[in-house]
Amino acid sequence: MGEQGELAADQHVRYIVTAEKKKDSFESLVMEHLRASGAYWGLTTLDLLHKLHAVDSAEVVDWIMSCYHPESGGFGGNVGHDPHVLYTLSAVQVLCLFDRLDVLDVEKVADYVTGLQNEDGSFSGDMWGEVDTRFSYISICTLSLLHRLHKINVDKAVEYIVSCKNLDGGFGAMPGGESHAGQIFCCVGALAITGSLHHIDRDLLGWWLCERQCRDGGLNGRPEKLADVCYSWWVLSSLIMIDRVHWIDKEKLAKFILNCQDKENGGISDRPDNAVDIYHTYFGVAGLSLMEYPGVKPMDPAYALPLDVVNRIFLSKQQ
Q: Other C-beta atoms within 10 Å of 106: how many?
């Protein structure tokens, strides 16, 4: 086990850049792994490992813009796919990484997201209308990165998220929905971005979140489930935003993540000895970032982007 004690950063970079060693174009990474979201996971991981220059930024930006729908202002998950708010956030986050928000018609993109807010303050993911607190976070995060949060009814958006709070301190996908770490991250993140964290019972939620740590050091998403590397991000970032991260054993969690690495070929899996994928590679490295692991850039827990990228957006001139 001692062998697993450190981050195989170079192998992870190679794994991401060569998209599972089958093809070597950036395009194949995107096709291979949930398209625009795959691009965001892979590229953010590269940036956290100080290796964003390993890809051709012009090629990435061109590809991202080929997924744009100028008539609606939204982005699809791939060329020719329908627009959805999830992929719109992924596109904006990737452009933030490369400092290329200048290629966007910011008002048009902001209007697309704004148009997805419903009367009760909730958000739909696309024109078909599915409602979920994930979409509240995604919309709020997108608009904030574009300096356009004022375009939505923020008070109503916050009110809707608060209506999804449960007696255990957590949050669900909709009012009455079961508490789940992924939804909690979305709700806490949205409340953090809108300056509304006072609506959270920090001790109650902090207790629910720190109870997600399993015997093996990993974190699960809800009671009675197995630990999974991806929750390293969702649980930890939530704990950091509510200032209760000292309630878990970070050393054991770091060890769990490091034990999920393929140290030879790169990549991180959901749990030890399983097949690696880009999704868990991102969440594993992001979790280590939140624990200030050496050699990994610090990450902003609310915006899910490297801290220097977020600072560049908000400390530069307000557009």
A: 16
Extract the tokens encoding 280. 């868990």
Q: Who's near 115: CB < 8 A, 6+ residues apart?
A: none
**Element (H or E) spanning 4, and its range?**
none
Instruction: With beta carbons less than 8 A apart as the criterion, state whether 234 and 182 touch.
Output: yes
pLDDT in tens, 236-247: 999 999 999 999
261: β partners:
268
Q: Which residue has the tokens 């990993």?
A: 218
End-to-end CA gap in the chain: 50
Tell me how far apart the alpha carbons of residues 6 and 27 are, in angstroms, rounded to a whole number. Answer: 30
Quick: pLDDT tens for 119-135: 999 999 988 888 999 99
Rounded distance between C-alpha atoms, residue 177 and residue 66, angstroms:
36
- Is-contact 240 290, C-beta < 8 A? yes
Nearest in space to 50 (alpha carbons), one of 293, 302, 258, 316: 293
Residue carrying structure tokens 């950036």? 26
Q: What are phi and psi of 109, to 5 degrees?
A: -65, -45
Interatomic CA distance for residues 305 and 44, integer angstroms: 7
Assess contact for 32 and 20: CB atoms under 8 A: yes
Give the sign of the dihedral formed by CA 279, CA 85, CA 93, CA 27.
positive
Question: Residue 15: which residues within 8 A CB-CB, separation 6 or more?
Answer: 21, 262, 265, 266, 267, 276, 281
